[in-house]
Write a structure and sequence with these properties.
Radius of gyration of chain A: 21 Å
Shape of chain B: elongated
Number of domains of chain B: 2
CATH superfamily of the largest domain in chain B: Winged helix-like DNA-binding domain superfamily/Winged helix DNA-binding domain
Largest interface: A-C, 34 and 46 residues
Strand content of chain A: under 5%
Oligomer: heterotrimer
Number of helices of chain A: 8
Distance between the termini of chain B: 37 Å
Number of strands of chain A: 0
Order of helices and strands of chain A: HHHHHHHH
Radius of gyration of chain B: 21 Å
Helix content of chain B: 55-70%
Number of helices of chain B: 6
Strand content of chain B: 5-15%
Structural class of chain A: mainly alpha
Order of helices and strands of chain B: HHHEEHHH
Largest sheet of chain A: none
């Protein structure tokens, strides 16, 4: 491109990096609202409500199980949907702005892992706050033994859930609704594979599970790249 | 601006030819660039370029590299000469054919032509009333 | 080099059993504005999508700046396909512009900002809250400010009102004059875009009907009228698109090269000869035989 005739032609960093930044940045903005909300509701409001009900009923209530553990367990499923929607809605834009499918697939994999990392940072924060809140009511709190391990487990599992969502959505987009429905079980790939491997679904991360998760991430990433590599952009519905 | 049915490049060329013939555009004067035409009349610059190409081929315009399009020397004479040559076929012949059709006498025609070309004449009907003293003072008031 | 050229060679695109494009061979000269005309379903959108590598050809080839665009980072970075409604992130208008600046190497922030004002768009508006016309305007802003060496506009003005459309043409032309690029403009509103075009490609049912300089095409569309016998004699075996009689006169719409002496011959025979507006010529050329309008013009 002639610089003289088109004005400034700027040298930009790799499109993978730029898109990953955009995707992560966008998610962060949602997270900035949803994260505190989750904390406030799950760690703040919920135990308070339980305590209030106990007081009103004037009977002793046993300490509730850790709601945060439950949330941490369930969140990846939600993450699947969020990532599925986000990666599909942004694909056409990415291509329309003159970038390749290769760079998009790479950006998505990068972004999912990065977001999983960021989400995982919420995990220990939640546990710490919840423990403090429980102690205020005199309840015992079962936090996982090792927060660091819980963190790493969380990151890897979340990444798998996220990529499974991206892959399923990509299959639906490229091959149509029927194929998408058949591919739906892919979103549950983590429970399926870990059940099949007889892995203890404990909070702690064992070597077999770690290997499996990393393997899954690589597999899902490759499958995603393969599906996106040949995708045709759909006509717009205005 | 370009209402006529003729292609826009023809209209542009015609306008330039008319301006040169009438002296509005003097010899050696620069014509608007294709980009200026494009911006002013909201047309593709190639359209103006096409008009210019025709005019250069005719010898009406001359290109000075890097500067622009200028009215060529002798362009006015050439245009007027070409119009003179075409006059009898394009303008007069149809008028005469029409005259014949509606029954105007040949002699009447000749009289009329002579009088009109002579310039001052009592028998020719004036096209505009000459201003009288009265109308002039009205205007000034 | 001021823009990417496009070479299409026997290009075919098939959806299941339908051929949306069938053996399309044409080129777009770098740095020119080319109109892509065709009826609904003629293949315009498919063609532009294929050039922009939104989809792959089923057969034949497409080359942009000498290379196939599919997954080609250098070439793709220079192509901007703008569709009605635009493919923009679902954020605020100001963020769309920020996205454009981050993703397009040739993006002009000043042009983008100025055009927002021209089209009456506010930075704080969310894209999802824009009306159809406003989305079209935003798409136009992105398309023009991208300054891509190959800019493809697919019926961008469809949802826009007349003042907005004319603002769009003006701004496109103005920026094109300052920073030349290749523009392919697909539009139904031929009368409106006519004067912007240097070249024209007409598609009909997936095939190229005409690919030529706009002026050359316009010159081939002519309407002659006069005394019926004289007109028929004058027409000879030129291709007749339409013939109407009114008493002893006939009005015949013709398509073809009549020769440089045509005007003189017409004048001689007292036949009136008028050029046909591109829009009318287009309607005649793409009319379906068997309809009430279509007479003659057999392929």
């Amino acid at each position: 491109m002639s610089a003289a005739s088109l004005g400034t032609v700027r040298a930009l960093p790799s499109s993978t990096w730029r898109t990953a930044r955009w995707l992560v940045g966008n998610t962060l903005r949602i997270l900035a609202v949803v994260g505190p909300l989750m904390l406030v509701l799950g760690v703040g409001v919920a135990p308070a409500v339980v305590a209030l009900v106990a007081q009103a009923g004037q009977h002793q209530v046993e300490a509730p199980g850790s709601l945060w553990s439950f949330a941490v367990e369930q969140a990846p499923g939600v993450f699947t949907l969020v990532i599925a929607a986000m990666t599909i809605s942004h694909l056409a834009t990415h291509l329309a702005f003159g970038m390749t499918r290769r760079s998009y697939a790479a950006a998505v994999v990068l972004s999912v892992v990065a977001i999983a990392l960021l989400l995982a940072l919420l995990v220990p924060l939640g546990y710490v706050l919840e423990a403090a809140h429980f102690r205020a009511y005199g309840w015992a709190h079962e936090a996982p033994d090792s927060l660091a391990l819980a963190l790493l487990t969380s990151v890897l599992r979340t990444a798998v859930w996220g990529l499974a969502g991206a892959l399923t959505a990509a299959i639906w987009y490229r091959f149509g609704g029927f194929a998408g429905v058949i591919a739906l079980p892919l979103t549950a790939i983590y429970p399926i594979v870990s059940a099949g491997m007889w892995i203890e679904r404990a909070d702690a991360l064992g070597a077999p599970e770690a290997a499996m998760l990393v393997g899954l991430i690589a597999l899902l990433g490759a499958a995603y790249a393969a599906v996106v590599a040949g995708v045709a952009v759909k006509a717009r519905s205005v | 601006m370009f209402h006529g049915r003729d292609p826009i490049y023809v209209q542009i060329a015609d306008r330039i030819r008319a301006d040169v013939a009438e002296g509005t555009l003097g010899e050696g004067e620069q014509v608007m660039s294709t980009n200026q035409y494009a911006a002013t009349y909201r047309i593709n610059p190639a359209t103006a370029a096409k008009a210019f190409a025709d005019l250069v081929a005719e010898g009406v315009l001359v290109k000075q590299r890097g500067i622009g399009m200028f009215v060529a020397d002798g362009a006015r004479q050439r245009l007027l000469a070409a119009r003179r040559a075409r006059y009898f076929d394009d303008v007069l012949a149809p008028a005469l054919a029409e005259a014949r059709r509606i029954g105007i006498d040949g002699d009447e025609l000749v009289e009329h032509v002579r009088a009109a070309m002579a310039g001052d004449d009592a028998t020719a009907a004036p096209t505009f009333p000459a201003p009288t003293e009265a109308t002039l003072t009205e205007v000034e008031a | 080099m001021t823009g990417f050229g496009v070479e299409l060679h026997a290009l075919s695109v098939r959806f299941r059993s339908t051929a949306a494009l069938d053996g399309v061979t044409a080129s777009v000269i770098p740095g020119t504005i080319c109109g892509l005309l065709g009826r609904n379903g003629s293949g315009k959108t498919t063609l532009l999508s294929t050039i922009a590598a939104f989809r792959r050809p089923s057969g034949g080839s497409v080359r942009v700046d000498g290379e196939a665009p599919w997954e080609n980072p250098r070439v793709l970075a220079g192509i901007a396909l703008v569709r009605e409604g635009g493919d923009v992130p679902d954020v605020r208008v100001s963020e769309v512009l920020r996205y454009g600046a981050a993703m397009r190497p040739t993006w002009s922030g000043e042009v983008a900002e100025r055009l927002l004002g021209r089209f009456d768009l506010r930075s704080s508006q969310r894209v999802e809250h824009l009306s159809r016309g406003q989305r079209g305007a935003l798409a136009a802003v992105v398309g023009i400010a991208s300054r891509a060496p190959l800019t493809l506009l697919d019926e961008v003005t469809l949802g826009m009102d007349a003042p907005a459309r004319y603002a769009c043409y003006d701004e496109l032309l103005a920026d094109y004059l300052v920073h030349p690029r290749t523009v392919v403009l697909a539009s139904h509103l031929i009368e409106e875009v006519d004067r912007l075009l240097e070249h024209v490609i007409v598609l009909d049912r997936g095939r190229v009907l005409v690919a030529d300089e706009a002026d050359a095409l316009r010159a081939r569309g002519v309407r002659v009228s006069g005394e019926a016998e004289r007109v028929d004699a004058f027409v000879g075996d030129a291709r007749v698109l339409r013939r109407e009689t009114l008493g002893r006169s006939a009005v015949v719409t013709l398509y073809g090269d009549l020769g440089s002496d045509a005007r003189a011959r017409a004048r001689e025979k007292e036949i009136e000869m008028h050029p046909l507006p591109l829009q009318d010529l287009f309607v005649h050329l793409t009319d379906r035989p068997g309809s009430a309008e279509g007479q003659g013009g057999a392929r």
